[in-house]
Amino acid sequence: MGPLLTSIFQILYTVLNLYVWVLIISAVLSWLIAFNVINTHNRFVYTVSDILYRLTEPVLRPIRNVLPNLGGIDVSPIVVILIIMFLQSLIVNYGLLSPY
Fold this sequence. Notes:
This protein is mostly helical. The chain has one domain. It has helices spanning 3-34, 43-66, 76-93. The protein is built from three helices and no strands.
């Protein structure tokens, strides 16, 4: 495999890894807002929340439409993280990238 293709897969792997962290931060922030630990009247909190919403909602919305309602528990971030982990394992297992 050429170095250009390896570099592309390294970038893809890193972007997927960063997106997992964005999903986790978005979920934690939504819990903090739901439990009134922080509120969106603070401009910084609102801005961060809005950015995370815009980054995650296009991916999470189709998953939410397919999954049944579990009584207020949103498992769509978990499903997306599992899909990302599957894609990362494909990249690593097919020799496209070293796991480290």
